[in-house]
Every structure is written in structure tokens, then in C-alpha cells.
Amino acid sequence: MHLTQFSDYSLRLVLYLACHPEKVVSADEISRAFGISRHHLVKVVQTLTDLGVVEAQRGRGGGMRLAKRPSEINVGWLIRRTEPHFDLVECFDPEANTCSIAPACGLKGALHRALNAFLGVLDEYSLDQLLTQRSDLVTLLDDSLRRGAKSNHAGGG
Amino acid sequence: MHLTQFSDYSLRLVLYLACHPEKVVSADEISRAFGISRHHLVKVVQTLTDLGVVEAQRGRGGGMRLAKRPSEINVGWLIRRTEPHFDLVECFDPEANTCSIAPACGLKGALHRALNAFLGVLDEYSLDQLLTQRSDLVTLLDDSLRRGAKSNHAGGG
Questions:
Q1: B113–A contact, CB cutoff 8 A
Q2: Residue B57 · residue B63 · CB < 8 Å
Q3: What stretch of H or E contains B39?
């Protein structure tokens, strides 16, 4: 059981932006800081912009910043929107279901309760609560960007 | 977010066996009742046998039955063993992790709490508690077997 890479990258992106409220950040910078695909990040930026979580700034020196305070971005709310679905087993999606016992099976109810408990915990967190070690996060991200720049320089010979 | 097909099929298999405590059941019968791959089920049977949940009866008229009472088979315990992992995001697996902020990020703790809540709910259920509508389940399974036999017959023309 895991979240999609899309949710993972969405969370990294908002964490990065929350660590750098003072500046406008490019997708390229975030891609380098985490060593992840810029191509995938661009789709994440689009979705988070549509959700009103991120706002883009166009033009030279453009990029993005959070459209809300970290304390206003709920983690459960966000993950509900970045995951494509929470169909734990086939019968969660009546249209796709082929399981013959779905109408009388107690498993679905148990799994629904478990899923609600999962999301309920995430609903308790806003983005700022993931940043209690913000200065350490900033240091780790800066180090990662520096290492990336060095290895690019070495690679360029 | 979803469970693997392996967990889904494992749960269907123990539900089927719990619905039919009076008989020894073949993988072929379960495969036909759910319309799922016999090949995949055979791997499930092997794992559940290794876990001591199912016991095989060899020879003519062979098959399997539950090795424990349904009230002794805990759903959370079972899913913990049928899922290959619960690495919700990359940093859950320190060996595979590439995320630069893992040492200071608060997300991991939030997701661990959510996962524990998820599994904690499933720990409240034993297999018999999923069978409160057992007679309806048996009817649905019998109907499904009959429909399968009919369509095979029609197919065999």
C-alpha cells in the first residue's frame, strides 16, 4: 500500500515552498533540490495551481509561491485531491467491481472505516505542522542544491 | 491508494473458506466463484498455507480448508502479511529513499500515525465479523458458480 508518486511530489513541492516563503521558486529549482523529474513536477504545479494551493508568477524571474499560508493548507485535504482514488479493493468502485459477494460482504465496511481513520489523522495536520524543523529543512535543501550543482559541474567536465 | 490484488484475493479466499466450513474446497472452485485467475490464487494458497491460515488436503478430492476458526483469524494481522509493504512514500524505506529532507521532515511522522490508525481499525476485526450476512454470501457464491458453469456450457456449445 502506498501513495502515488504524484502525491509524494505534491507534498515535497508544498514543503519546499513553505520553507522559502521569501522568494518565488522555479520548478527547476525544486526538481534539483529533490533530484526528481522536472517533467513530473510541471504536472504537479498545474494541479496545485488549479487547487488554489500554488500561484504562478509569469515572466522573467517567474516561478511560483504558495497561494495560502502553510497553516491554511490541510494535509488530508491535499492528499484527497492528489491521489487519483482510494479504491482499496475492487468493490470500492461499483462500476469496476466484478466481485460476486460485494452486496453482502463485511470487508468493505471494515476497509472504509480503516480508510476514514487514515484520512482522519491526516486531517489533523496543516502544512506548517510538518515544518517544526524548518531551519534544518532549509539547510538540507540548500545542501542538496549545492551537491547537485557540483555534480553537474563535474559532469560538464 | 489501494491494496494489492494479492491481498484482495487472499481476503476473498479466506471469506470463501469461512462460508463453507463443511467442505474441502479446490482453488479451481474459488477461482470460478469469483471469476479470477486460478494461477494467481495458487500463489495465494501457498502464502496462506505458510502462514498457517489454510491447510491443504492432498490426493483425490483434495483441496483446502481454514486451519483456524474464522474468529481466530485477525484481518489486520492478515493484511500486514499479504501486503508486500506499507511504504506510503519513499522515505518509509531508508534503503530506497532519495528524498533530501527525510531527516527533518514532519510528513513521515504524520503518515506513520495515519497508517497505524488504518491498521488499528483492521486489527479490531476477525474474519467471522465480516460474515454477518453469511447465508447471503453463500447464495451469492453459489449463484456465481452456477452462472460460470452455464457460460462455460454455452461456450462449449
A1: yes
A2: yes
A3: helix B38-50
Q: What is the pLDDT of residues A86-108, one digit of tens each?
A: 999 999 999 999 999 999 999 99
Which tens digits make up the pLDDT trace of A122-132?
999 999 999 99
Name the residue range of residue A51's domain.
5-135
| Contact at CB, B119 and A114, closer than 8 angstroms | yes
**Is the Cβ of A141 closer than 8 Å to some Cβ of chain B?**
yes
CATH number at residue B112: 1.10.10.10
Are B106 and A140 inside 8 Å of each other by CB? no
**How close A144 gets to chain B, by Cα (Å)?**
6
Q: What is the DSSP string of A117-152?
A: HHHHHHTT-BGGGG-TTHHHHHHHHHHHHHHHHHHH
Using CA atoms, how far apart are residues A14 and B106, in angstroms rounded to an integer?
A: 13
Query: Chain B partners of A44 at a C-beta cutoff of 8 Å?
Result: none
CA distance A129 to B25: 52
